[in-house]
Amino acid sequence: MSHKRFPDPFWKANRLFQSTAAEREIKSEAAIMDDFAYKIISERRRDTDNAEKLGPDLLSRFLDCKDPKDVPSTKELRDIVMNFLLAGRDTTACALSWTMYELAKNPEVVAKIIAEVDAVCGSSKSDKISEESYSYDKIGELKYTHAVAMEALRLHPSVPVDSKFAVNADTLPDGTFINPGAVISYSPYAMGRSEELWGKDALEFKPERMMDEEGNNLEPSQYKYSAFNGGYRICLGKGLALMEIKLTLAVLLQRFDFEGCGHEGGYQSTLVLPMDPGLDMKVRKYV
């Protein structure tokens, strides 16, 4: 909803006076999210006050400080929770949906993922999931699965269009002058499908393009592969997002067969890239 503010020159006035249904809806839903965030923070603070051992979650790490003065304020913690929810949930959900969409069309890729996971984590189709089998270090060894995640995000970046606002005058590397206050937009979606950047097969799903001849992962230039932004603005959650995708694929593909139901690749135009309609799949448990 909030992304519709961009083409509206009166959105600040509408927000101030709550003069549109969209602004009233944003305010109402923002209040729900605030209540949720403050409830989580309050529960964690009670654990701290009662000298209980904090868990391994990210919020607890911000609260677990030797010097109480180093603990962020409640407002700062609220912003941290919102960042996790907004920047880390929908983006990874979109990435997983599009990855499964591509895998449903490329069963040979699924077979390679399963073979790699079996070799690194151990062959398993049981319901029991061992933390040791899917440890952080072992997930990091899944090079082909990493390439699959990177390739899926090349074609289907979770943030399809991004914008930057120039606070001061600047000059781009090619000599283009940027006026202060100007908006500069770029499209990771278009860049990921550019034949000029990726070759004639740019629209093909080929995880191998993210690996060298020895099977090691390649790290494309951030200014060619812009799904995670670049430079000083590189996504802080890049490593976490890729780990979540690889872990999810490793656990699920060993245990379930996923069959696509004919999704045509449509998507909604929002701040992120959700599928339209949602991704329906037939799931069969291996026996």
List the helices and strands and how they pair.
Blueprint: H1 11-17, H2 21-49, H3 58-63, H4 74-88, H5 90-105, H6 107-121, H7 136-140, H8 143-155, E1 162-165, E2 170-171, E3 177-178, E4 183-186, H9 188-192, H10 195-198, H11 238-255, E5 256-260, E6 281-285
Antiparallel strand pairs: 1-4, 2-3, 5-6
Could you characterize what this model shows?
This protein is mostly helical. The protein folds into 2 domains: 69 residues, no CATH class; 153 residues, Orthogonal Bundle (Cytochrome p450), CATH 1.10.630.10. 46% of the residues lie in helices and 8% in strands. The chain is built from 11 helices and 6 strands. Helix 5 packs across helix 8 and helix 5 packs across helix 11.
Low-pLDDT ranges:
none
Per DSSP E runs of 2 or more residues, the count of β-strands stands at: 6
Count of alpha/pi helices: 11
Radius of gyration: 22 Å
Spatial order of strands in the largest sheet: 1-4
Quote the distance from N terminus to C terminus: 44 Å
Overall structural class, as computed from helix and strand content, comes to mainly alpha
Number of domains: 2
So what's the CATH class of the largest domain? Mainly Alpha
Along the chain, the helix and strand elements come as HHHHHHHHEEEEHHHEE
Largest sheet: 2 strands, antiparallel
Strand fraction equals 5-15%
Overall mean pLDDT: 92
- Helical proportion? 40-55%
The shape, in one word, is globular
CATH topology name of the largest domain, in short, is Cytochrome p450
For the record, what is the CATH homologous superfamily label of the largest domain? Cytochrome P450
